[in-house]
Amino acid sequence: MLNLVILGGGKGKRLKKYFTGSKILLKVFNKSLLELNFNIFKKINKKYLIINKSQIDIIDYLKKKNISGLNILEEDRRLDTGGCLYHLKKIKNYKKKVFLIIYGDLLIDIDYQRFYKFFKKTNSKISLIVHPNDHIQDSDTLEVKDNGFVDKFFFKPHKNLNKISTLALSGVCLIKGSILSNIKKKKLKFKSILKKNKKYVSAYETREFIKDIGTPKRVEWARKFLLRRDVSKKNFKNPIKTIFLDRDGVLNKEKKDEKVSDPFNFTKGALRSLKEINKRNYIIVIITNQPGVAKGYISEEKLKKLNKNYINFLSRKKIIIHSLFYCPHHPEKGFKGEIKKYKIRCNCRKPRVGLFKKAIKKYNIDLSNSIFIGNSKTDYEASKNIKVNYLHIFGNSKVSYIDKKFQFSSFNIAIKSYFKN
Ligand SMILES: [Zn+2]
Fold this sequence. Notes:
Blueprint: E1 2-7, E2 27-28, E3 31-32, H1 33-40, E4 47-52, H2 56-64, E5 70-75, H3 81-87, E6 98-103, E7 106-109, H4 112-122, E8 126-132, E9 141-144, E10 150-154, E11 167-176, H5 190-196, E12 201-205, E13 209-212, H6 216-225, H7 228-233, E14 241-245, H8 270-279, E15 282-289, H9 300-316, E16 323-327, H10 354-363, E17 371-374, H11 377-386, E18 389-393, E19 407-408, H12 411-420
Bound molecules: zinc ion (ZN).
Zinc ion is lined by residues 327, 329, 346, 348-349.
């Protein structure tokens, strides 16, 4: 049985200009965060709110608004999430329950039933919602294994920003009540619980809207620029528009003869254009053939590391790439230095569409309102195979097999034109 726990958080000290009192009473779209979060989660067994004794304003608010159905758990003083979990032990039969825990100061709209399915399928004890992030300096982040479980945590404070993952903890998690019995102390930090149970902690990656609006800048942004529908539009149930990108020859200059291109050798205006995509309601998915692995020019390990550095670099430039999928294979055998196990006819090498399908499944993509930008006949054919609109970046001259109005001399110009129409 799924139970919701909203953490009441603290007073909005940094928000003085807008508001005094408990942060979760802050109003966005004419409703308090507490009301918004309380109403989003519908098919839930019981709802709990953990506050501390000094947050009388919350109790008053609930009375005034006549909000019922929320069970209040009070703590003596403000505690870390770990400490809040300690209080859940007051709930009868807590060991048999599952708790969906959210920070009350988050503005959020997620398909939590899907998250719950993932939690059950992976048989995790704790499942954390994570998302790609462009302020890793003040986030806890992690790396995920292919099976969905956590490989490595990176907790704040970070010593070396360019060495950490950009998948950040969002402040939403599911936990099995049975794990609470191990929490003996009120003062236990959540990160110690995570570290200790790492084997049983999975990470659920989402593109949905989860943002804490605990700083004046973010409140201002939310109130001025954000609409309720922008938030709900990103719920997984609603397909999302996507810009698929080939990398080499589109975002960076391409090495001929399929040797490994330097992804940091950006084409003019590429970074600005990526930012432009991020500003709109699109996600970015890079799909790249990297036959250099099969040909023995670079090991897959090295390529993975290069990709991580690349995503990390862009994140620090305030650019979010939702996924980068690569194909390491190459079909033709018989070359010097080749690595046999990659010399296969796979489903992921463009013009085949394995990687596109992976992205569609992961993000629920609105294909008819998405585009793919590439620079080769292979890319063009891939776009036909998956049935997505295609923009072509040409090298020296335009090609004959694509209508001229869909051809551009650079990624930068293609994006400008696309968003103008
Ligand atoms: Zn492949």
